[in-house]
Amino acid sequence: MLKVTASNKQTLFTTMNTLNTKGNYLEQELLPLIKTGNWKKLQNMIIYHDGIISFSFKDDKWLFIKSEFKDKSFDNLIFQESIDSKIPILYKANERMFINEIKCIALACMYFSSNKLTLATIAGITLSLRNMARMLLKHNISSFADLTLEIIIEMSQLGYDFYSKNIFRGINKALALQEYLPFTMKLEKAVTHKQIHVQHKKPEQFQVIPFRIYCDLLNYGKRCIEKAFSELGYFQAAVEQYQKYIKSEQEKRIKQLRHGSVKLNQSELKSSSVKSFLKALNTEKINFIDYGKEESWQTLFQQHRVTLAMPSEPNITFLVYKNTEMVYKDFKNHLNEIVGIASWLCLLLSGMRINELFDAHPIHGAQTIELTKNTNSSNSTQMSDLETIYLLTTKKSKIISGSQTEDDVFVTTALGYKSFKVLSSVQSPIRNRLNSNELPLFVSLHKLLPTPSGSANNKSKSFGQFLSSTLRKLNKKGILNLTLNQQDIDCLYISEKTHNWEVDNLFSITSHMCRRSLAYYLIGYELCSFPALKQQFSHVSMAMTRWYARNASSFQKM
Prior knowledge:
The protein is mainly alpha-helical. It is built from 22 helices and 9 strands. Strand 5 and strand 6 (324-327) form a beta hairpin. This is Integrase.
C-alpha cells in the first residue's frame, strides 16, 4: 500500500472509492478484474483519480508528477519503455502480456500490499520488472508465471546479465503479492544471487570532473573546433587526401606481404587483429604468402580489420587550413586530436552516452530547430523573435519543430553542434567510398585513425580507449593539466563527499563522467530544472536524475 501522509491518504482513497457508488471501488471492482486477468475490461478501468488527472489501466505512463498526489518520495510509473529507454516494449502479444502483468504488480503494491511503499520504491520495482521482462522475452518466455529458478540459472549460464543488485527485486515483490495477481509464480521463494552462483556488482560511482579541468577542456576544445569548423572545406579535403594515401600504401604493403618481399614487423605481430587474422588463415589452411592466389585471404584480412604499419617517413604534405600545411605525422596527430576533442565536446555538452554518439546518424545526428521567443522591446511592447535550438539526436530522420519525439534528443550548444559537424565531415570520405549515408557516425574508427596495435572487436570500448588516450596526450604536451591540485581536491570533496584522490594524482576522465558533470553543473548553476534534466538524460525515474546531480546544492555555496 502507498506510503502517504494522512492528508494524502484520506484524499487518495476517498476519491478512488467514490468511483463506486455502492461501496469500495478498489476491493469490489478493480481487484477482481486484476486477479482474473480480464485485460479487455481492465483497459478502461480507472486506476487513479483526483481533481486534476485520471489514469486508466490502458495508459502506459502514470504521470503522478501532474497529479494532486504529492509526498516526500514520489515518482512517475512508466511501463512502455525498455531499460534502454529507446526500445518500446510494445506491439507484440508477449510484450503486451508483460506490460499488463507489471501494471498488476504495480497496482498490488499501490493498493493491496500490507507494506507501505512510496511511489519512488514502486517505480524501482517496475524498473526491475521491465529489465527482467526484456531478458525473458529474448529467452522466449512470455509471462512471469513461467519463470522458475532453473530457468534463471540456465539464463545466467548462457550469459544473461543478472549482476545488478536489484535485478530480482521486482519478481520477489511479485512473489510476495501473488494473491492479488492474475498468475501464480512457480518460484518457491525469493531469488538471490547466491542461489544462481553469481555476485551482484556494486554500482559504479561516476565522479564530477573538477571545475578547473572541466573548464580547461571546454576552452581548449572550443579553440580547436572553431578553427576546424570555420575552414571545414580545407580540413575535409585534407582528410580525403590522407585516406587515399593510406589506402594506396596499405594495398602496396598487402601485395608485398602476399608475395614474400616484406615481413610483418614486431608492432604488427603484437596486434590482436593481426593475431586473429593469422589464426584464421591457419584454420582455413591458407598460406600467408599465397602470391595473390587465394580470394579468401583478402576476405579474412578485411573481416579481422587488420591495419598495417605505414612507411616510417611518408613523403607527403597536407593543406589542412588555408594557410597551414602539415607533414604526414603532424596531420595524423592533429586529426586524432580533433576527432577526440570533438567527441569529448559532444559528450560534455549534451549528456549523450558514448554508444549513442558512436552510432549516431552522420546527417541527422546534429540538427537545429527554430523556436519563437518573446522579448520585451524598449517601449514595453511584445515582439517575436526566432531562437535557434541546437540538438544532438539518435534519430535517423529530420526533427520538425513542434513534433513529438522519443527521449532520444539532447539539447546542446552551438559548440556541441559544430563538434558533431566536424566529426561527420572527417568521416565523409569513408562513407563516400562505401556509398552510404545511412551508416553510423563512426562507420569505421580503425579506418579513420589507423593503428596496427588496435582492435575493433568492441567498438564502444575501443572508442572509449581512444578518447582517454586523447586526454593523456594533451596532458603530456602540457595543453591540459590533469594533475590534481588542492582546489581540485576541494571540488571533489564537495561533489562526492568522500573520494580516494590526493594532490598530484593524475585525474582519469571517463566518458560517463560527462553526464554526471553536466547534471551537477547545470543544477549547481541553476541553469536547468530537475524535470528538464530528467528529459534531457532520458531517465525513467526522477530519483536517477537527482542521483546524477547529487550534492549540486553544495556547489552553489563555493
